[in-house]
Structures are given as structure tokens and as C-alpha cells.
Design brief:
The complex is a heterodimer. By secondary structure, chain A is of the alpha/beta class. Chain A has helices at residues 3-18, 20-31, 46-50, 78-88, 105-117, 137-156, 162-188, 195-207, 210-226, 249-257, 271-274, 284-295, 309-319, 334-350, 367-379, and strands at residues 35-38, 54-57, 97-101, 122-126, 235-241, 260-265, 324-330, 354-359. In chain B, helix 15 (373-384) links the parallel strand 7 and strand 8. Classes of the chains: A alpha/beta, B alpha/beta. The structure holds iron/sulfur cluster (SF4). Iron/sulfur cluster is lined by residues 77, 79-80, 103-104, 106-107, 243-245, 301, 330, 333-336 of chain A.
């Protein structure tokens, strides 16, 4: 793949990410396949894929909230308000189904509102166990996945057998593997690819057929592997938080603009999305359950006191030799609001400097943020 | 000419609830000092299972709402904010997390503050019982558990996404109850006392049945008791759930209500408007709100928070089947269903209680309670031809409440009711 090809690939990814729902609609018309939107974080997209449908992870768009104000209060997190807003404007009607997984109360409310405002659509709510120390969580997870599998079969009009589910798991694992390779390449040599581009690549993976994405990605990784390490001057930063929402690029530009280099992250539209694979031996439903229960990275949307997020974050930040951590909190995101004091405390005890920034759906002046970030980066050793 | 000030006509028995609550907090301290293992809990009263383990329970909202109603919530919220909790997080939870930090010795109150009010014994176990699948309870419980280094149990009813889910969800809840009981046996080192649980359930049955009867009596015009009285009575079936004497107090309350009906006395001096309230009361403005409504000849009569949330299915309580009784009261209730079910309940309320208008209180930091406000306004209110407004507010953080905004919107609501009445008379 040549340099210009790399550009083409990135342009293709960007095109998908910039106007996700328009592109998906076109894709659906061209391919005649059903498309299912999955709420971010916990739902195993492989199940949708195995039913011959296209799973995509719902994304927040930049659109200003207007009609949605008549359906939801302004003190809900950005992605919840935005998705409800664009749903009532009819922009999600092309989806053949929307699957919401229980991660927080706002997500639950979004599912209820979508069910109400899109009465003709299939809207499902998935309740995987959220308290992971409870007895019988494996059985409960398998039961819930089986229940959803049956519903998706109905929607798709075809059975999901073990062979097709295993095949889908392989397709997703391959994509995750390439994303991890890319992440590692960049971690070792951040000059290879801007973090902004990494975000585009991950988000596009959530919105495109995985097979096509992997093919393009493989070419990109091969090309990047051949490239010479380029040195970048700046302070090494670890980006944390933002739970289910993807980042707006302007905050990344700000971080890089004040001399920060993002070397690693624990974002959902980042490492969290591809960190762990699903096992391919044994029962595929059990393998999906195991990934959910035993392998996924600690996250405050689920309760598991023995392995809390803050401990994990400190280890990862140290491991990546970050000089500081930027904690991004999506305004009104309760799982994050409640975790932040513990994250703050753990980072302070570990001697890792951090800055917490709140982000909002609405565009606000970033001048104040720039000043704080600048001061933070300057004081890092 | 002498102007008559219209003040709310509070039930006398309500002041007894406050006394009983205060005595119970003192009793928790006494029991902890005697070496009893203490539970801290939030949410719905399924934590009454702790009674069978002879563990005293400090119920978050019971304590915090009372403090907030007396304007004493701020030191707790300061303790939480000093820890890094931002004000957008649930104010009940923030206050309780503040209390945990104080109990742990991580935050020291200003010497000018009455220390006794905020010094509660450290918990040995946390039980979170969220209403309507609110995941925030989990975060809240885990925060207290992490601060105090104790186990947390999340006794969470699964949400009835489809009405057909109910049977499985009840069975699932019973399994959780059994697991909690086993955990309490480990914490106390004692076998669970099922006989005591049965006795407790007998008191619960009596109290919840009486409470339902009182609510029904409020369908009378003028309403003999208000939403404010019923809000105070939550303590009897929540923090004080199953305590000896709770049934008797509700019996007294019922007697007072019946007497008022016989004498034609209402809970406000003049009842011209009967209103529905959606959301939690802004406790720090409780008195202000009660006086405001009375002065405007408006009576807040009914709302899901007081009438449908706390053990609303007295009919399903059978002391011989305690786990099933509790499970039904958690799983088969309005808050555990989505809009369709809730809309029907609200519409029934509006008709049974002769409601003239709806107030949707934003309860800004509780996204569990305010999710379907607009749907109710748009669906139920419009279908029944009732006007509805939203007003700002929050359970325990007065910063989200504005008197001026409430006055303006309330005025608009009452004017709309009047205008519609006139149209109907034409
Ligand atoms: S996890 Fe946070 S950002 Fe995501 S839906 Fe829940 S509250 Fe919103």
C-alpha cells in the first residue's frame, strides 16, 4: 500500500465516520441487508452478524438538539439526548432494529423513549448481569444472550447456529487483532499516526462491515509497520474515560496543540473496544458470556469490587510510561461521576498527575480548557 | 380588613412520624455500640430482609430527606464534593457518600456543625435496592462499600421490558433475596431468623394496607391529606419498615383522615385545584412548597413517588411467603415497567383522584425518576385534556430549585385550569 493508498483508506474511514447514518442508509439500499444499531459498550455485535445482518454501534452526531428537547431533559448525557433527538427526527428509522444493553439508567431511559417514539421499529433491551460477584452470573448471562439470539433470529428470519456464530466471532477477532496491532505500533511510536486518526479508524470499525474494515486495516497496518519511527516532541499522556461516548476531535486537537502526545487510552472508542477477543473453542454463546464476565476491562457501568477501574487505570497509565492522565468526563455521565473521586484518589496516591475535563454535546468555548490543559502539560516532568 | 393567611393543614399524626424516625436513628447508634452489625441501604424497602438477620438498617433516603427538609443536607454534600463528586450526580447518593466519608473519619465537619446529626455508625454491609432498574444505586452502593471497605449487595429487580418478563423476573429476584440472606448469615455469623422475618412481614402487611386505605380516602374532595402528608408517611414503610408501632401510627393517621372527611376539612384551607406531582419533592423546600400550594388554593393530591413506589402491593404481602411478597412489591410495580404501563397508572390516578393538572418536577439529579416525564405530559395529559407543566427541582440539592420559576409556571398552570373550566361551562 502506497502513501496515497493510505490516504485513500483514511478518507474512506473518515467518510463513514463523518456522516454515519447517511452512509449506513446508502449501504443498506445498495446491499439489501438488514442493519441493527447496538448501544455502545456491552452488547456482543457478533450475534447480529451471525444472523446475517449488519451490526453497528450507535454514535453521537454533532447535530444540535432541537426536537429532542420535547422528549428528554437537558441534564441527560450528550449521547442519550442526541440519539433521542435524531430518532424523533426520523434519522434512525432505516434501522431494522435497535438493541440497547443495560449500562446505566440513562441508557435504559433512552431505550424506553426509543420504544415509545419508534413504535414501528424493533427495539430491544438487554439485561446482562451488572453485579458480577453475584452467584449464577454465567448462567444468567448465557440465558440472556440466548433470549436475544432468539429475538434476532426472528428479526433476521433465519437461525443462528453455532457454526455461523463461531464464524462471526472469528471475523470480529480478526478485526480486533488488527486494531490491537495498530494500537501497539502507535504506542511504541506515536509519530506514526495521529491519535485523531486512530479514533477515526476505531469508530469506522463500529460502523462498517467488519470484513471490509479489516481488509483495509490490514493494508494500513502493513504499511505502518514498514514506516520509519518518527520522533515526536511532547509530553506522554494517557487518555481515560468518556465511557460510551466517542470524542469530539476538537478536544484531541487541543491536547496535541498544547504539546501533549496521547500514547495510550482506556476509551471505549479506543483500546476497550478491541482489547480482548472471544474464545473460539467450545460453545460460542458461552465464549461471548465469558468475554463479557471475565475478560472485559474494568468499567464502572458494572459492579465488581475486587477489580475496580481506578486500579486498572493506574497500572495501564504506568505501563504506558505516561507522564500524566487526561480524564475526560462526559457531562452528566453518572457511572463516570461516581467513579471519578476514586480515580482521582488512586492517581494521586500513585503519584500520577491528572487533569479532569468535562465535555458536552453542545459546542462550548474551549479557551478555558486550553488554558487548563496548557498549564497541566507544562507542569509535567 | 384582616387578610387571612392560608396555611397547609398538616395531619397531626405526621409529627409523630418525625419523632419515630429520630428515635430510630438513636436506636441504630445504640445497637451498633452493643456490637450489632449495621446495614446501610438505599432505595426500596426490600432491605427489610436485614430484619431477619437482626441487623439495624440505616436507610439513606430516610435520613437524608429528613435532614434536607430541615435544611441540614449541605455538610454531607460538602463532604462528597471535597472527595471529587460533582453536583450533577444524584444528590441523595452524594449526601450518603459524604456521610460514609464522615463515618470513616476521612472528612471532618466544621466545629460549628451539630456533629451528632452526622455521626452514624460505620456500616458492615451495604444493600442497594434500586427502583425501576436504576443503575445509579449500584454506583452509590459501590462507592460507600469502597470507602468503608465492606461488601455491597445489589438487590436489583430486572426491568419488565415486556410484561411477559414478569414471571422470570420475580423468580430471579427471589434468587437474589436468598443470596443476600446467605451473605447476611456470613456477616453476622448467625443463622437467619425466619420467624422474626414473618413477624416483621405481619407489621408490614398491616402498615402497607392502612397506607393504601388512607390514599384511597384522599380521593375524597376536599382531600383530607396531601401528597406532603403521604410523602412523610413513606418513612413508615421504608426506613422504619416493619418496626413495631408503624401500623398503629398509620391507624391513627387513618382515623384523623376519616374524621376530617366527616367534618369536611381538607388538607388546604380552600381546595380549588387538585394536582398531580411527578418526581421527588425538593425536600429542602418542603415547607416553602406546602405553603405555596395552600396559598394558591391548590392541593397536591397524588403522585407515583408517594403512591406507587414503596411496597404498593399490600395485597400481595403474605407473611407466610416473605420472599415472594417482597419480590412482587419490587418487580410488579409501576416503576419497573416502561411508558405504556406507567401512562395507564397515571391516567387512572388523574381520574380516581379528580386531578385538574399535572406538575412534572424535574428532580434534576435523579434520572431514575424523571425519565418518562415528557411522554406522560404528551400522552396522558393531552389525552385527558389536562394541562401540565415542568418545574425545576431536585430531591436534596436546593441549587436546582428556583422559587421564581416555580411561581411563574404554577401561576400559568392554574390560569390554564381556570380557562379550561370556563370553556367547559360555555
Ligand atoms: S455510560 Fe455515561 S455517557 Fe454512556 S449513556 Fe450512560 S450516562 Fe450516558
Amino acid at each position: 500500500m502506497s502513501g496515497s493508498n493510505m490516504k485513500d483508506v483514511m478518507n474512506r474511514f473518515r467518510d463513514v465516520v463523518d456522516t454515519p447514518y447517511e452512509k449506513l442508509k446508502l449501504w443498506k439500499e445498495a446491499n439489501g441487508k438488514k442493519v441493527v444499531g447496538c448501544s455502545p459498550m456491552q452488547f456482543p455485535e457478533e450475534l447480529v452478524h451471525a444472523a446475517g445482518m449488519l451490526p453497528v454501534v450507535l454514535q453521537e452526531t454533532d447535530e444540535a438538539i432541537t426536537t429532542g428537547f420535547s422528549y428528554i431533559y437537558p441534564f441527560y448525557c450528550g449521547i442519550t439526548r442526541n440519539i433521542i433527538d435524531i430518532a424523533v427526527k426520523g434519522q434512525l428509522s432505516f434501522f431494522d432494529g435497535l438493541v440497547y444493553a443495560d449500562i446505566c439508567i440513562q441508557n435504559r431511559n433512552a431505550a424506553c423513549t426509543l420504544k415509545q417514539v419508534m413504535p414501528a421499529s424493533y427495539v430491544e433491551y438487554v439485561q446482562l448481569p451488572t453485579s458480577l460477584t453475584r452467584a449464577g452470573v454465567m448462567d444468567d448471562t448465557i440465558r440472556e444472550l440466548e433470549r436475544i439470539k432468539a429475538k434476532l433470529e426472528q428479526l433476521a428470519g433465519r437461525k443462528i447456529d453455532d457454526t455461523s456464530l463461531k464464524q462471526s466471532i472469528l471475523v470480529f477477532n480478526r478485526n480486533r487483532l488488527r486494531l490491537r496491532q495498530l494500537h501497539e505500533l502507535r504506542r511504541a511510536n506515536p509519530g506514526l499516526l495521529s491519535y485523531r486518526d486512530l479514533q477515526v479508524i476505531v469508530k469506522s470499525s463500529m460502523l462498517m462491515p467488519k470484513e471490509e474494515h479489516t481488509e483495509l486495516l490490514e493494508g494500513l497496518v502493513t504499511q505502518l509497520e514498514k514506516m520509519k519511527p518518527s520522533s515526536l516532541e511532547g509530553k506522554r499522556l494517557f487518555l481515560s474515560g468518556h465511557l460510551c461516548q466517542s470524542l469530539k476531535p476538537d478536544i484531541l486537537d487541543l491536547i496535541e496543540g498544547v504539546g501533549g502526545i496521547i500514547v495510550d487510552d482506556d476509551l471505549y472508542t479506543g483500546y476497550r473496544y478491541y482489547a480482548v477477543d472471544v474464545a473460539v473453542d467450545g460453545s460460542p454463546i458461552q465464549a461471548l458470556a465469558k468475554r463479557y464476565l471475565e475478560k472485559s476491562l474494568p468499567v464502572p457501568t458494572r459492579s465488581y469490587l475486587p477489580a475496580r477501574w481506578e486500579k486498572y487505570l493506574v497500572e495501564r497509565a504506568k505501563d504506558s510510561r505516561a507522564q500524566g492522565v487526561v480524564v475526560l468526563v462526559a457531562k452528566y455521565c453518572e457511572p463516570h461521576l461516581f467513579s471519578y473521586p476514586f480515580v482521582k484518589e488512586a492517581l494521586e496516591i500513585a503519584g500520577v498527575p491528572h487533569i479532569m475535563l468535562e465535555t458536552e454535546h453542545e459546542v462550548v468555548s474551549l479557551e478555558g480548557v486550553r488554558t487548563r490543559l496548557q498549564a497541566f502539560v507544562e507542569m509535567l516532568n | 380588613m384582616e387578610t387571612q393567611v392560608k396555611v397547609p393543614n398538616r395531619l397531626n399524626s405526621v409529627s409523630l412520624i418525625g419523632q419515630m424516625m429520630a428515635a430510630s436513628f438513636a436506636d441504630i447508634k445504640r445497637q451498633a455500640a452493643e456490637g450489632k452489625k449495621v446495614v446501610w441501604a438505599n432505595g426500596l424497602p426490600a432491605f427489610l430482609l436485614a430484619k431477619g438477620a437482626h441487623m439495624p438498617v440505616l436507610h439513606a433516603e430516610g435520613l437524608i430527606a429528613g435532614l434536607a427538609a430541615r435544611g441540614q443536607e449541605k455538610p454531607l454534600q460538602d463532604a462528597a464534593e471535597a472527595f471529587g463528586l460533582l453536583p450533577d450526580a444524584c444528590s441523595y447518593a452524594r449526601s450518603f457518600i459524604g456521610l460514609a466519608r464522615i463515618a470513616k473519619g476521612d472528612f471532618h465537619l466544621d466545629s460549628s456543625v451539630n456533629q451528632d446529626v452526622y455521626s452514624m455508625p460505620k456500616p458492615d454491609l451495604y444493600i442497594n435496592v434500586p427502583g425501576g432498574g436504576c443503575g445509579t444505586g449500584r454506583l452509590w452502593g459501590d462507592s460507600v462499600a469502597a470507602i468503608c471497605d465492606i461488601p455491597a449487595f445489589h438487590l436489583e429487580p430486572r426491568f419488565n421490558w415486556d410484561e411477559s418478563d414478569l414471571e422470570y423476573n420475580i423468580a430471579d429476584f427471589i434468587r437474589q433475596e436468598q443470596e443476600l440472606i446467605a451473605l447476611m448469615e456470613r456477616v453476622t455469623g448467625q443463622p437467619y431468623d425466619w420467624n422474626h422475618l414473618k413477624e416483621v412481614l405481619e407489621e408490614v402487611k398491616k402498615a402497607t394496607t392502612l397506607r393504601q386505605e388512607i390514599m384511597k380516602l384522599c380521593q375524597h374532595v376536599p382531600a383530607p391529606a396531601s401528597f406532603f402528608d403521604m410523602a412523610a408517611s413513606i418513612g413508615l414503610v421504608c426506613h422504619l419498615v416493619g418496626m413495631p408501632g408503624t401500623g398503629d401510627l398509620l391507624q391513627k393517621m387513618k382515623g384523623e383522615v376519616e374524621q376530617r372527611i366527616a367534618q369536611g376539612i381538607g388538607s388546604v384551607p380552600v381546595e380549588r385545584y387538585r394536582l398531580y406531582w411527578d418526581g421527588i419533592l425538593t425536600w429542602p423546600r418542603l415547607g416553602v412548597l406546602a405553603r405555596k400550594f395552600a396559598a394558591l388554593d391548590a392541593c397536591l393530591v397524588v403522585g407515583p413517588y408517594t403512591h406507587l413506589l414503596f411496597l404498593p402491593r399490600a395485597d400481595m404481602i403474605d407473611p407466610e411467603r416473605p420472599l415472594e411478597s417482597i419480590a412482587y412489591n419490587l418487580c410488579d410495580t409501576c416503576s419497573n415497567y416502561d411508558y405504556t404501563y406507567r401512562a395507564k397508572a397515571v391516567a387512572d390516578f388523574c381520574q380516581e383522584y379528580s386531578i385538574d393538572g399535572l406538575i412534572m418536577s424535574e428532580t434534576q439529579t435523579c434520572r431514575g425518576i424523571n425519565s418518562q416525564s415528557f411522554a406522560i405530559m404528551d400522552g396522558v395529559a393531552r389525552r385527558l385534556g389536562l394541562p401540565a407543566i415542568t418545574i425545576g427541582g431536585d430531591s436534596c440539592d436546593p441549587r436546582f430549585y428556583s422559587d421564581a420559576q416555580v411561581d411563574t409556571r404554577l401561576q400559568a398552570l392554574l390560569e390554564t385550569i381556570e380557562a379550561r373550566r370556563k370553556v367547559r361551562q360555555l
